[in-house]
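Researcher: Following up on the earlier apo prediction. This time include the ligand. It's zinc ion, with the SMILES given after the sequence.
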Amino acid sequence: MKSNAQRRPPLEAARPAYRNLNGWALAKLLEHHVVRECEHHGHVLDRADPAACSRAREAAWSDPFPCATPDECLGAIDDVMGGIGDTCPEC
Ligand SMILES: [Zn+2]
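Model: Understood. Below is the ligand-bound prediction.
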């Protein structure tokens, strides 16, 4: 269980607003280490980690993008994952 002793301040000023649902989904995938960015080229790569993927999906379900339903959020995650390969085309 997380402690409530240190509540985080509002993030609106510190974090850029995600422009759309797919941008939000990509951020979730990065946050949960489902995908990583190639350190040389910045391409997003699938880490092929099913456990990380299910954590990201659970997080998306319980904390969906504003104004989107959990189903739409999971759909966006599937969408984004569908466009991500596991090797960098430039490496
Ligand atoms: Zn690369």
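Model: The mean pLDDT is 87.
Researcher: Noted. I'll compare it with the apo version next.
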